[in-house]
Every structure is written in C-alpha cells, then in structure tokens.
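SAMPLE LOG
Freezer: B-3
Tube label: C17
Construct: single chain, 279 aa
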Amino acid sequence: MSRILFILFISFGITSNLLSQIVLQPGMVNRGDEESGLIEVGFRAGLGFRAKDRFENNLESFTSTFQPGVYSRSQVDGFRTMTTGELLLRTGIGDNQRFGIALGTLQYDKSSLTELTSDGFYTRLNFNLYTNYLIFTYHYLWDFHKNWGIEGGMGFGANETWWRSDGYAISASEYFPQKGTLRGNGISFRAEASLNYRVSELFLIQFGILVGVNQVASFSGSWNGSAATFYIREDGRTTPLSQSRAVDSIVLTNQFARSLDMNTSYTSLYFSGMLRFSY
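STRUCTURE (predicted):
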C-alpha cells in the first residue's frame, strides 16, 4: 500500500506541474496571491452510474460445481447505481490552483447472483460491496464572474474494497447457507469538472460531474468459515474456493486458476459544500 501511494504521489506531482502551465483567457479572474493562503473544508454527496464491465461478466460465469457433465446458468442483478460521500480538505497554492485530499466511501447498490444447475441445485448470493478511498486531488479554477466559476481537476489515490456476501444453496433434499467477507486493496483515479458558486467569502457550493475508476488486483478473506477467495478457472468459470481446495482443484482438474480482480469505472453527479478560511 505504501509503495502504491508513493508512486501515485510522484506521478501526481509531475502532472500537477504540467497543468499549472495553463494560461488564463482574457476576461477570466486570477485571484493568485489572494487565495494562496486559503483552506477549504467541506463535504460531497453524489449519485453514480456504471455500465456492465469485466468484473460483472466474470460473476455471470459463476459456478458452484466442478463435476463434469453438470451444467449451470448464472445471472447477476444490480450493480448499476451507487452513492458516494466524501470529506474534502483543500488548500490554495496560488494562480487559481488547489491541492487537497478526499476521504470517501463509494457504496454500490445491493446486488444478487442466482445460479441453477442441471443436478437440481439453486444458489442465491446477495452482495454488498463498498469502497473506501483516500485520493490526492489537484484542481484549477476559472472565475468568469465575481461569484461564479468553473473548476476542473483530477485525483489519484488508494482504495480498500469490501465485498460481503450471504445466501444459500438448496436442492430438493439439501440446504447449505453461504456467507463470506472478502477484502482487496487497489488504486483509484478520476477526472472531474464543476460549476462553482461563491455564496459568501466563507462558503462555496459546487455542482459537478466526475468519471472515476477503481481497480483491485484480488480479494482475500473468508467463505463459509474458511480462508478463501473467488477464482477464475481456465475454462472461464468463476467460483469461491478455499486456498487448500483451490490447489486440489488445480491438480485434479489440470486447470490453471487465477484470483478474480475488479476494474470498474463509473460516472457520478455530485453536490459539494465547502467552508473557506484564510491563514
């Protein structure tokens, strides 16, 4: 995690330096030294939307069996919307620029996976996914009126994604509860733009849009009481396996398996409110 943050911080500094070469157009206001000693503290709430991606496609290839000749069909519902909440801290660094951090949570809407197998088993899993993140941000402001402005920026950081599951597998004569908690770490980055309105010298509101990406290389945790994760087999099917069973399955079926990863992008509309202080 610390290595990821170090690399992102260096990359962020280089990118910020390049963006700082932007020249104000005639008619726009450069507050420069006036805001170099500014601190902004606030909150942000947003509603996001995402399209179907590889992570969801892999989940739709879910299977609960390794038995040859047993066929299964799976379906995933949900994952389309999400809500975000953030705490913001920014400081003016001169020439209409802001550097800051955003600490937030992205909550995916509740989703479910269902599977029906040819040997008579029906499986239903309910998912609760959310991502906590810390992002370093850089913004540039174009003030076209005393109280109105446009802001554009980007952010790089790290995330921790939690994936909680519960459900059951049932047949005509058997019932098996299913429960798991998985966690993964990765990187997050985004680009955003907003319309700013300065209510007073002490308060600012924003209406904006952002495009973000969260990446998680793998998940680990527990499934039905054992250390486990989701694996993608060589045949493309996805299944939760304990570590010991994963090794046995690879040996017995002569199939390679890799951990399920997550690479998801989303678009969010947001509202922000920030208090402004000078030092």
